[in-house]
Amino acid sequence: MRGLSIVLVLFSLLLAGCSTPRGGLPYGSGAPYDSSVAGDYRAEGKASYYGRAHHGNKTASGERFDQNALTAAHRTLPFGTMVRVTNLDNGQSVVVRINDRGPFARGRIIDVSRKAAESLGMLKTGVAPVRVESLK
């Protein structure tokens, strides 16, 4: 009986050591989000798109990626920034919201969702020369 008591005490201590600490105060450092910090961003380069393979995965902003939404990934623009992406080959353009980080392929400046790629007429090619401009 005494041996069982010792085992139970040791097991209780082991479980207590596995618990996570209680959260403290909410994160309070930094300034509230302001999409105007994107300023007058304008760049030209190559765009690619991502779709089915990433559909439903979490983005860097924490939301789930929806290939049917008008969203995009950019390396530095703040999450929530609205940008106009124009396909320089055909003149088609679309407004997307930045909600992820990327692209990670060399030479690309933006990754757009499948829906945005469809609007830009770049589904067949997969990559297109584009202009990206922040909106106010």
TrEMBL record:
<dbReference type="GO" id="GO:0071555">
    <property type="term" value="P:cell wall organization"/>
</dbReference>
<feature type="signal peptide">
    <location>
        <begin position="1"/>
        <end position="21"/>
    </location>
</feature>
<dbReference type="Pfam" id="PF03330">
    <property type="entry name" value="DPBB_1"/>
</dbReference>
<keyword id="KW-0456">Lyase</keyword>
<keyword id="KW-0564">Palmitate</keyword>
<protein>
    <recommendedName>
        <fullName>Endolytic peptidoglycan transglycosylase RlpA</fullName>
        <ecNumber>4.2.2.-</ecNumber>
    </recommendedName>
</protein>
<dbReference type="GO" id="GO:0008932">
    <property type="term" value="F:lytic endotransglycosylase activity"/>
</dbReference>
<keyword id="KW-0472">Membrane</keyword>
<dbReference type="GO" id="GO:0000270">
    <property type="term" value="P:peptidoglycan metabolic process"/>
</dbReference>
<dbReference type="InterPro" id="IPR036908">
    <property type="entry name" value="RlpA-like_sf"/>
</dbReference>
<dbReference type="InterPro" id="IPR012997">
    <property type="entry name" value="RplA"/>
</dbReference>
<dbReference type="InterPro" id="IPR009009">
    <property type="entry name" value="RlpA-like_DPBB"/>
</dbReference>
<keyword id="KW-0961">Cell wall biogenesis/degradation</keyword>
<comment type="similarity">
    <text>Belongs to the RlpA family.</text>
</comment>
<keyword id="KW-0732">Signal</keyword>
<comment type="function">
    <text>Lytic transglycosylase with a strong preference for naked glycan strands that lack stem peptides.</text>
</comment>
<dbReference type="InterPro" id="IPR034718">
    <property type="entry name" value="RlpA"/>
</dbReference>
<keyword id="KW-0449">Lipoprotein</keyword>
<dbReference type="GO" id="GO:0005886">
    <property type="term" value="C:plasma membrane"/>
</dbReference>
<feature type="domain" description="RlpA-like protein double-psi beta-barrel">
    <location>
        <begin position="43"/>
        <end position="132"/>
    </location>
</feature>
<keyword id="KW-1003">Cell membrane</keyword>
